[in-house]
């Protein structure tokens, strides 16, 4: 197989068919092989059953065998090696049909992990994992956050210690969405304690079924339990499991954060299509509770629509900036993440005001009421997960606007010394 790193085009494009012909073939295949999606969305989608995962894997395999998964991924790694316009064409034709749904672990696998791996992992690693991911055989989650690190993404204490030809992983990760049904975790571990914290990190692929890995689910306010905590007790790994280089974990992290915070829209990801009509989810809600002609409800829908338009305009502008300034992409992605953290809570509140008592207590089968309540309970998710609003504002201020950095007592010290000094640190300057 051809190594795409030697191909003159980034995705290894070869023998690309005319786009209109590709679209016509995709339309015919979709109509013949996929079911129409239900008109109403499910109220909740956090917990995945084994049956749902099995069904999603089977559907993913059908799409993969037909050539409609990994459309922009190089052929050497199981993809089609086509440009993003072909991927957009397929998703436009498949709109309204049932596609594989792996829940939140699916979003992490295909939206964050795969593009990060393609950017940093060795060709042998990619040949081993990417085809299986595309075929639905491997789902990846992030083993990133830690119980003791908070918003300090580089304050990692889970460690991988070299022991001859192997690495031994120990420690704990938390808030790993969907880990209970995933196959692998992309894990950030400390491999050097004697350098500043950002320089002693390495990413590993960790099989969740490996000896020494324990996954515990965490019950959330919505009643779902998609969050997990993992414990690693002397888990054996090899050099073949490394993503990027030893000690190069923060470089890989910067790429991952682009996709996690910005959704990858600045890097040729699938086009974000505006919904048809004015805030269609809220219009549907108002209709279901008999308030579609209520002036107050209509005003709330209009307010949400204005915010939706502003948010899409922001993301479109960010996409252009990120493509034009790839060196700033990680920092610009913070705007997209902050937008979610800022826009989501008030929009969920508007929905609750429209739904009224029907969004507080509802009859069995009332999807609109259940969905509205669930959205409200989850509305502050993006203001915390993946870096709080405050962390995003700090990053934007320092990295984009050029404002003075906040004082730091640990940026140039070996991490081992940081932990030692933190035991007696008061926050006051010496002599104070």
UniProtKB/TrEMBL annotation:
GO terms for cellular component: plasma membrane. Residues 144-235 form the Acyl-CoA oxidase/dehydrogenase middle domain. GO terms for molecular function: flavin adenine dinucleotide binding; oxidoreductase activity, acting on the CH-CH group of donors. Residues 22-137 form the Acyl-CoA dehydrogenase/oxidase N-terminal domain. InterPro entries: Acyl-CoA_Oxase/DH_mid-dom (IPR006091), Acyl-CoA_Oxase/DH_mid-dom_sf (IPR046373), AcylCo_DH-like_C (IPR036250), AcylCo_DH/oxidase_C (IPR009075), AcylCoA_DH/ox_N (IPR013786), AcylCoA_DH/ox_N_sf (IPR037069), AcylCoA_DH/oxidase_NM_dom_sf (IPR009100), Mycobact_Acyl-CoA_DH (IPR052161). Residues 247-401 form the Acyl-CoA dehydrogenase/oxidase C-terminal domain. Keywords: FAD, Flavoprotein, Oxidoreductase. Residues 1-20 are annotated as: Disordered. Its cofactor is FAD. The keyword Zinc-finger does not apply. Signal peptide: none annotated. Belongs to the acyl-CoA dehydrogenase family. This is Acyl-CoA dehydrogenase family protein. It comes from Frankia nepalensis.
């Amino acid at each position: 197989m051809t190594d795409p790193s030697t191909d003159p085009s980034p995705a290894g494009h070869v023998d690309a068919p005319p786009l209109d012909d590709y679209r016509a073939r995709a339309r015919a295949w979709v109509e013949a092989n996929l079911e129409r999606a239900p008109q109403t969305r499910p109220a909740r989608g956090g917990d995945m059953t084994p049956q749902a995962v099995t069904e999603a894997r089977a559907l993913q395999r059908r799409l993969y065998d037909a050539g409609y998964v990994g459309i922009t991924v190089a052929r050497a790694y199981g993809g089609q090696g086509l440009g993003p316009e072909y991927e957009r064409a397929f998703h436009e034709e498949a709109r309204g049909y049932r596609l594989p749904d792996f829940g939140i672990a699916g979003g992490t696998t295909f939206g964050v992990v795969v593009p990060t791996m393609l950017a940093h992992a060795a060709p042998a690693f990619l040949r081993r994992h990417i085809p299986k991911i595309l075929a639905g055989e491997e789902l990846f989650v992030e083993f990133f956050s830690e119980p003791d690190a908070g918003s300090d993404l580089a304050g990692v204490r889970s460690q991988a210690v070299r022991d001859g030809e192997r690495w031994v992983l120990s420690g704990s990760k938390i808030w790993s969405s969907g880990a209970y049904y995933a196959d692998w975790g992309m894990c950030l571990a400390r491999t050097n304690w004697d350098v500043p914290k950002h320089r002693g990190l390495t990413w590993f692929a960790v099989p969740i079924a490996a000896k020494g890995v324990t996954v515990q689910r965490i019950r959330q306010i919505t009643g779902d339990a998609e969050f997990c905590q993992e414990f690693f007790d002397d888990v054996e790994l090899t050099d073949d499991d490394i993503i990027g280089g030893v000690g190069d974990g923060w470089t890989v992290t910067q790429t991952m954060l682009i996709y996690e915070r910005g959704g990858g829209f600045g890097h040729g990801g699938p086009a974000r299509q505006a919904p048809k009509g004015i805030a269609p989810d809220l219009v549907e809600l108002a209709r279901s509770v008999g308030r579609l002609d209520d002036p107050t409800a209509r005003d709330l829908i209009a307010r949400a629509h204005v915010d939706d338009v502003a948010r899409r305009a922001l993301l479109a502008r960010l996409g252009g900036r990120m493509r034009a300034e790839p060196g700033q992409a990680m920092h610009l992605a913070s705007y997209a993440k902050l937008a979610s953290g800022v826009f989501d809570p008030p929009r969920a509140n508007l929905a609750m005001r429209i739904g009224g008592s029907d969004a507080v207590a509802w009859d069995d089968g009332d999807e609109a009421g259940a969905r509205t309540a669930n959205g409200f309970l989850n509305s502050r998710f993006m203001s915390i997960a993946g870096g709080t609003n405050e962390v995003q504002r700090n990053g934007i201020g320092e990295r984009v606007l050029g404002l003075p950095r906040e004082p730091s007592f640990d940026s140039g010290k070996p991490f081992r010394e940081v932990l030692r000094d933190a035991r007696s640190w008061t926050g006051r300057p010496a002599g104070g």
